[in-house]
Amino acid sequence: MKLLSKLAFILMFSIWISSCNNEGGEKPKETKDTTAKTGVTEKKAQGPIIILNWGPNFTKAGQDFNVQDNGESALWFNVQNGTRNTVVYWDTQQLLSNSDTTATVITASVPKNLYRKPGDVRLHLRDTLTGNTSMNVVFIIN
Q1: Own/partner long-range contacts of 88-94 (Cβ < 8 Å, ≥24 apart)
Q2: Distance CA 72, CA 96 (A)
């Protein structure tokens, strides 16, 4: 919450400064507020993405796992050097992914059709901005 307050202050201060420099008394042009998102996404990774822990790492074919409030199954990854642009890949398919504000926990929703049949699935993380990736881990479907 402190980060959002600081970002809001910076945004308001920037708008005030730009209006002070506005010649001719014209209203400053309205701009889209992207500070909250870009302020966090600009975190520079200090090296490759490292998966410290993750789960769940197996399920039975067709059986939901780590079920969320919306009914979807989900994976979680505790990582080092993640960013807000880090996403999860299920083999070659990018999953709908999210991160916490510090980008140390990455989560991903897994569509039911991906775990209907038994097999081993390679999972990895990728920063969509820098292209940095993690090593693969294996999700087992019995």
Answers
A1: 88/123, 88/124, 88/125, 89/123, 89/124, 89/125, 89/126, 90/114, 90/121, 90/123, 90/139, 91/121, 91/122, 94/126
A2: 11
Alpha helices in the chain (DSSP H): 2-20, 35-41
**pLDDT, tens digit, for every residue of 22-80?**
444 443 344 343 334 444 444 565 789 999 999 999 999 999 999 999 999 999 999 99
Query: What are the beta bridge partners of residue 80?
Result: 50
How much is the pLDDT for 22?
A: 41
Residue 4 has pLDDT above 60, yes or no: no
Pairing outcome for strands 119-127 and 105-110: unpaired
- Residue 75, beta-bridge partner list: 108
Rounded to whole angstroms, how far apart are CA atoms 114 and 87?
A: 17
Task: Kindly list the structural domains of the chain, giving each domain's residue range(s) and its CATH number in brackets, ordered by start.
Answer: 2-41 (no CATH), 50-141 (2.60.40.10)
